């Protein structure tokens, strides 16, 4: 029988589950081979996250001992476009009112610790008063640099015309949050002479590139190379904090690079790049093939011309 009484053909429906940022755990654990039914898109293909790699936290405040909730002000205390630094007893938060909505997040810039209450609030973003780092008030995510980390985001509720903030005690102390990152899923199978991403230079720009790729779900090999002996460090502190030790000025600890499979080749220099064949030639003769290349070497100061005189200021 035809027409509207025809037997319908089976239709395959594909459902992609996307977890909200706040429900993903920041801590990463090595995979053990068990696949999760949750999928995500990486580099244009559907892959699997392991449950052990990205534990699912339905309640972001599961550890009640780590939670503090406090009344911080009356609903009429803040006008639209105003910010206030509020104390929750075990730490401070930045309370913001914009377009009739309240938001709460970390009160210090993760870069150098500037008080964000003295910054600029505009169109859903707060800019640091010192160096201009930009943070989204809805998510706490960093959207413009300098700085690497985002801000912790706290819950806000209105009850009997009072504004309450519910926050993690640990987040109030650290005042920073690292975004969820992927790992390299082919690390055990790669060829040492080839990489998907090669980053020449291990300063802030190179590190931000590597981190952003992992944050966006890139799961192939990433290699950074530098002439320095140390892991990426905060170069301005060499002149601003001259008594600092090397471990005090590193942008990320050694464990961070291990956890997220970002390889750093120290004391290595790229002498030439064959762009046509996508091969980087190192000074010692070693060659590495790449798929994508970023050159982020920065610059070196020019030597003073012979016979020039330093101007006294």
UniProtKB/TrEMBL annotation:
Keywords: 2Fe-2S, FAD, Flavoprotein, Iron, Iron-sulfur, Metal-binding, Oxidoreductase. It comes from the Eukaryota. Residues 70-165 form the Rieske domain. It comes from Alligator mississippiensis (American alligator). It holds the Pfam family Pyr_redox_2. The keyword Flavoprotein applies. One of its GO terms (cellular component) is mitochondrion. GO terms for molecular function: 2 iron, 2 sulfur cluster binding; metal ion binding; oxidoreductase activity, acting on NAD(P)H. This is Apoptosis-inducing factor 3 isoform B. GO terms for biological process: execution phase of apoptosis.
